[in-house]
Amino acid sequence: MSRNKILYITPSLQSFVKSDLRILSKYFNVRVINQPWGNKKLAPLNFIAQFFSMLFSIFGAEFILVNFGGYWAFWATVFGQVFGKKVFIVTHGTDCASIPEINYGSLRIDLLKQICNFSYRRADAIFPVSESLIETELLFDPAIKSRKQGLLFHFHGLQAPIKTIYNGLDDMQWTLPTKPNRIPNSFLAVMSSSQFELKGGDLILKIAEKYPTCNFYFAGINDSEIKLDIPANVYFLGFLSPEELLERYQKTEFYFQLSSFEGFGCALGEAMLCGAIPIGSYTNHIPQIVGDSGFILGEKSLEAAILVVDKALGSINKDLLSINSRLHIQANYSLALREQTLIGTLEQFTGKSYTL
């Protein structure tokens, strides 16, 4: 069993990051470097702290794996070049986009775009979590004029090899309910307050007004954080633990992922594993994640949304769609598939074998 040391650099520890760490820890001795980059005031200190963390950790490392393009990728690529270590960068969405109309995308910030450019061009490979992060055209949200997005659009002539490795969802954590007891005509969306417009929260409120006998739930956000009028059939659940979120997925009939831009959509996949029927936007990789098990909204408008919601509510095969939602994620976006592809790709680019 190979226990080579690797450096894993990440600005955050979301569920998909923790999943990758569990996968990598099977094969490697993983040294995680994680400064609190979310606090912008600490950026200069984080930059210095990361330098010394890497200086004391680089020796004996097999390679460097960076999660998200950003300031934290700068030292990774510098140390990689100086010490002859291969550097791989996993991109997730914001690090491949600049959409000023909705205040989204790291590449809106000139300095951050320059650092991403520096890092991407020196990486030994880039691993986006969907093909849409390589190059895409956004057609869903009419407010977006910056339609062309992705690595190849923002970084012309990028020579680093690019290999898509989809995120993986844990079907042992996100399960169907033992005794189905879903709230009839219920809809759920998961987002933070800063993502409200990005993930279609504004449109969902308009939809809720048109369907007063249905129930609409937002997880991850409180009503006090919303400045818009809130219909009486809309409920804000605040932050939910994984256990609470599982329970909510299992009792909801439909899941909304109405994003204007979405690098992948982990919450969408989680909800589908729990049997929630997906209603997704026609953007990025969302239509592929939904597949034939749900519904796709072609444009961000109330008129188009009403047609799709009517169709979803009137479905006579909801039970079949619910089961197919889980089966579709298991077949295409499982943790096992991500592990197989990630480790196989690392073997390809390092020329080494990592076996259990």
CATH architecture of the largest domain: 3-Layer(aba) Sandwich
Sheet with the most strands?
6 strands, parallel
Give the number of helices: 12
Topology pattern, helix = H, strand = E: EHEHEHEHEEEHEHEEHEHEHEHHH
Straight-line distance between termini:
5 Å
Q: Could you say which overall geometry the principal axes of the C-alpha atoms support?
A: globular
CATH C-level label of the largest domain: Alpha Beta
pLDDT < 50 stretches:
none
Taken as a percent bin, the fraction of beta residues is 15-25%
The assigned structural class equals alpha/beta
Could you name the CATH topology of the largest domain? Rossmann fold
Mean pLDDT: 95
Number of DSSP E strands: 13
What's the CATH H-level homologous superfamily of the largest domain?
Glycogen Phosphorylase B
Helicity level, as a percent range? 25-40%
- Strand order in the largest sheet: 10-9-8-11-12-13
Cα gyration radius (Å): 21 Å
